Amino acid sequence: MSTPENPSSPQVDEKRWQRKRLPEWLRMPLSKGARSRDTADSLESRSLNTICEEARCPNRNHCWSRGTATFLVMGEKCTRSCPFCSVAGGVPGALDPEEPRKVAEAAKELGLRHVVVTSVNRDDLADQGSQHFVECIAELRKQIEGVKVEVLTPDFRGDSDAIDRIIEARPDVFNHNIETVPSLYKRVRPGARYERSLELLGRVAARENETGQNRMWPKSGLMLGLGETEDEVKSLLEDLHRVGVKIITIGQYLQPEPGSLPVEEYIHPDRFEEWREFGESLGFPMVFSGPFVRSSYMADAQVPLS
Questions:
Q1: What are the pLDDT digits (tens) for 76-105?
Q2: Which positions ≥6 away from 83 have C-beta within 8 Å?
Q3: Is the backbone of residue 67 left (phi > 0), alpha (psi -120 to 50) or beta?
Q4: What are phi and psi of 186, to 5 degrees?
Q5: Where in the chain are the domains?
Q6: d(Cα 230, Cα 134) in Å, to the nearest integer?
Q7: Considering the entire predicted model, what is its pTM?
Q8: CATH class of the domain defined by 30-302
Q9: 12-15, long-range: CB within 8 Å, 24+ apart, which pairs?
Q10: 53 has a pLDDT exceeding 80
């Protein structure tokens, strides 16, 4: 998650970046209306952050017009600097102990039935921020009867105690994005490790359907257009299926700002459809694949019915 001041950020000509035109299939019309304003007001009144804004998601206007948002907890600054992401890196502040309550209040006010909670990396905390996730899950279930809770977590640096802490809270969906193929990790996710992310997802999947517990769906997502090959994407999807992931999202990487990694290729919608078919052929119950697909976009529709 880089900033223009980050010396490790790729050098990009800003004028060239500004002139670059998107293909027709990547031009989403803006959605505006009273519901979008109500969503913004509910978030602003509680000083809550969303990944919609911090990551400059192209779907944010559409989501907000539906009254949905993905809550970004534990601050606005991330302890890592991934060059594909526009969330600011730096030293985070102290956790707000009232944030779980505020998230639940906003979700209730917006009438949400499926709530997605994600966070910045908090490598500065002894528990990597895992207990804060647990408190968000508990508060949402306390305030909203029958709510479905999805968490989109960092890798917690592979800390098994942190991962198990959230597993024991039994979110309905436990999502951790693999993001890209192994050969691009040093460039795209320099603070992460491919095998570490696979191990986290496998750990979640191993406890997905425990007797006497509510179902917990393992989920992951990746971006295309960063220079990956077709064989690499196939291998990645095979790895995710092998460790037990059930829900997959595949979307187009879009450069959020001049200092971010450049797009190597815009993938045609027909190719995304082929990736959906390939994922289904491997046995994934749910595969969402398309230029605008994001891990938390229309998340309520991404959960299998059984």
A1: 888 988 888 877 788 889 999 999 999 999
A2: 1, 2, 6, 8, 9, 10, 187, 188, 190, 259, 260, 261
A3: left
A4: -65, -30
A5: 30-302
A6: 38
A7: 0.84
A8: alpha beta
A9: 12/255, 12/258, 12/259, 12/260, 12/262, 13/258, 14/258
A10: no
